[in-house]
């Protein structure tokens, strides 16, 4: 069975990796006033943060329509027998459900939607693994089983400089407990059961990053090879410095740097920083 992998743009996969592994992209969009931009196609990360600074209102975001999914799936049906469709957490976006709905509508190809229950380049790790297996001729059911296994090894923590973006967009559960001290803390956040929830309250950005470093160490020091990604919202120099520190601490971990792109950056705000990892 010939299988192709689809993911959405919130994976923020570098173009060379998408081309290397034949990963198909479906875009989410950011909306500034009356202007709609498909991220990674019509608006890129550096332009986005500059536009936010110049805008008097924060942008909003939108997911791909079911029709867009159907159009893509029907196009792929001409060359493939199955699609593994890998998407950001269903708890913060309807994108995954859009893939499910479209998969039930198209004929001539079987669609296997997968909810990563996370986002950004951690989502990208799942898409790359799926695409590698597809290139090796694995059956789609085997690919999904492998992704489910990796999900048990995956962790991701992040912090936002300003939680108001997440609260306003309804992407942060359990925030009520933090409202009284929002200005004083840099809470660590993570995904639980597809939703973004607070993990720990931490007073400063430096201490928050140190705590994430410790959490990685709990897994890295078990000796198994891991792949990890530092994710930043327009803080590339800080991300590079952090990676140097992490590489010295955990030589058995393969690190890369990625970013919170326009859609996720809308909800986290500039200055956000995160770290995610899973078994290689």
From TrEMBL:
One of its GO terms (molecular function) is lipid binding. Keywords: Lipid-binding. This is DegV family protein with EDD domain. It comes from Bacillus oleivorans.
